[in-house]
Amino acid sequence: MKIICIGRNYLSHILELQNQKPKEPVLFLKPDTSILQKGQPFFIPHFTNDIHFEVEVLVKIKKIGKHIQAKFANKYYQEIGLGIDFTARELQTKLKDKGMPWEKAKAFDGSALIGEWINKSEVDNLYNLNFSLEKNGKEVQCSNTANMIWNIDELISYISKYFTLKIGDIIFTGTPSGVGPVSENDIYKGYLEGKELFNIKIK
Q1: Could you read off the pLDDT tens digit of each residue along the chain, which spans 203 residues?
Q2: DSSP code, position 82
Q3: Three-state SS for 146?
Q4: CATH number for domain 3-201, candidates 3.30.870.10, 3.40.50.300, 1.10.287.110, 3.90.850.10
Q5: How far apart, in whole angstroms, are the C-alpha atoms of residue 131 and residue 114?
Q6: Burial class (CB in 10 A: 0-12, 13-18, 19+), 195
Q7: How far is CA 4 from CA 96, 121, 154, in A?
Q8: What are the domain boundaries of the chain?
Q9: Residue 3 and residue 165: Cα distance in Å, rounded?
Q10: Is 101 helix (H, G, I), strand (E, B) or coil?
Q11: Count of C-beta atoms within a 10 Å radius of residue 154
């Protein structure tokens, strides 16, 4: 399986990091070694002290697809979830400034927190999902999928032009504003439509 991530899919986050609004989705990949094992804390990696949290709505692909039209994309997933794309921000900035790939800052071991999954039939409208992240009991990120520049079906269609989607592949659909640094002993809780989907401690 592979993890496909979308960068710059919320205008608020684009402005927050002073980036330019892209004309098409920004894609990058995480390997399966980036998945944080369930029940495990997130350990700040040895190569940086500047890790940021980015909460994101996730989609799990349920069948193989290539060149998928957006109007048929809903047939390729049944489960949605919530996760964190942990990012080595200072390292990412240095890589971007040099025009180099982001993988060292985005795809390191344990950088992908994947919470619990729910069936999309449990929610009323995938294009109007509230989600949020709490840091030590205080809400730090809060948004709605209506604020996406490209919605889930459009992302699946776009991604499938370049990568064959396979069963079990996971899409991180982008983060809204409010991202910030993690510290040792922080506790993060993620909510989708008011339901807690993950609870993670930083070590």
Answers
A1: 999 999 889 987 766 766 777 899 999 999 999 999 999 999 999 999 999 999 999 999 999 999 999 999 999 999 999 999 999 999 999 998 999 999 999 999 999 999 999 999 999 999 999 999 999 999 999 999 999 999 999 999 999 999 999 999 999 999 999 999 999 999 999 999 999 999 999 99
A2: E
A3: helix
A4: 3.90.850.10
A5: 14
A6: middle
A7: 19, 23, 14
A8: 3-201
A9: 10
A10: coil
A11: 15
Sheet holding 87-88, edge to edge: 87-88, 51-53, 180-181
- Rounded distance, CA 80 to CA 172, Å? 10
**Model confidence, pTM:** 0.95
Q: Whats the size of the chain, residue-wise?
A: 203
**Residue 123 has which token pair?**
């929610």
Q: Report residue 151 as tokens.
A: 């919605």
